[in-house]
Amino acid sequence: MIHLNKYSVNDKAKNREEIVPLLKNHIIFFSGGRASLAAADFVIKKYPEDNILLYFTDTLWENHDTYRFIDEVSDKLQLPLLIHCAGLTPIQLMFEKKLVYNNMIGDCSKLLKMRVASDYLKKGIKPGIEQWRNPQYLKQNNFIENATLYFGIGFEEMHREKAIVKNWLPFSVNMPLIENFIRPDDVLKQYDIREPELYKLGFSHNNCNGRCIKAGQGHYRHLKKTMPDTFKKLLEEEFHLSMCVSAYRYIIDDQVPEEDQIPQHVQEKLLQELDDAYRDYFYGRADKPNLFIHPAASAQSEYMKIRKYSFMKKKSKTPVEFEYQTESEEYDTDLIPDLLFEENEDTTQHTTKGLRFPSEPYTLRDFNRDEKAKPEQIDLFDIGGCGCFVEFDEQENNMSCNTTFGG
Ligand code: SF4
């Protein structure tokens, strides 16, 4: 549920802009994590007279305690908090796009966080939902111009620094936790703020209620152990999403022989039925999707394929052979196992054959079953997780987040 504390910037704050000289602006990208609290504290201490804003982009999928935490930080540090939201959860976004994201493709952080922020700060485009808390602490109404952006990125995430700096040009970016020795736990104590629930449960990030769809086996095992109901719900959502996406792809498939393609007018009817079956479920208005029979069920046998999609992937046990050209017989055996060499007539070129083990879907259902039957095979070090606010390409950067989605 969205946290509804509706405020607007009051006249007092607006008028103040006219009577004080222009102050330097600082915007803290506030993720709801303790590191971003530490970044906020750093800025307050270094620039106590300046205009400082906490900025939170809501995925509507956060842990309930995150909202308590961000409110408490805003109140106790006496900083205005601006919340922006595209109005969709990551699951709803996947349903709208008919994609199941995983750690290789995943637009939820881009569309629900980065683009919302980027559209607003760079282009002045507001998303569908905006809320303020403590706007009276805003020292001037123009809080974007020449602002420095702050991220609570620590040493362990230093590899993200370059991408973030590039992504936010022309703003200047600062990551106080990399350049300074700051202990977020000390800052929590200093303000007597309780850390967010997810940290207490042993999660390393306070993101999306521990359900990050880019997470790995170790993370999901922890989710299952600490929040079994949340894990079970996510498992069900992944299953229904997979069925929905599989049916969608099947209906619109134009790679099969023309005589086997579903005619346009039937496609439209089936797509409407598909939407009717799943929409209320993914928007939280129904406990289960309505009955929808996957059209592959009544297809000729060679097309009777219900494809699986999942958040996690794992290496297939069945290798596939592949070929590529190389000018040298030297090759990296670490990268390409079991290579076989064949020389071409052109002696400078070699056709190299190798075996690779493609990745295949590893659903939470399969994971759940393996975790019970073969717990020793679970890769506990495969944590994965959200890479929100990292670099994304210019083409995407130029797209607006004002895309509207049905609810
Ligand atoms: S935490 Fe994971 S699920 Fe949530 S927005 Fe980031 S990438 Fe997506």
TrEMBL record:
Matches recorded under InterPro entries: PAPS_reduct_dom, Rossmann-like_a/b/a_fold
Residues annotated as domain Phosphoadenosine phosphosulphate reductase: 26-123
Pfam families noted in UniProt: PAPS_reduct
Family matches, as SUPFAM superfamilies: Adenine nucleotide alpha hydrolases-like
Signal peptide: none
GO molecular function: catalytic activity
Entry protein name: Phosphoadenosine phosphosulphate reductase domain-containing protein
Organism expressing this protein natively: Paenibacillus glucanolyticus
